[in-house]
Amino acid sequence: MVPSILGFWCWARALDRVPVATASQVLLLSPVFGVLLSAAVLGERLGPALAASAALIISGAILSYWRRPVAAPAAPPPRV
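Now predict its structure.
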């Protein structure tokens, strides 16, 4: 129960500091962290399929976070 409360508290703190759209990008990385922790804690093997899956998830997170440059507004026409 304490880890869940701590996790929700950290999430609320993150939402106070950054926009929701930015903070939600961390949720996309949850499966990657789960696989890495299972390898570190439980000694599970990371195969090529898991590495490819992690690469696709990270690529998707980067693409959704990446913003296109916004063109500067055109100058208004001169008044005559």
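The chain is about 70% helix and 0% strand.
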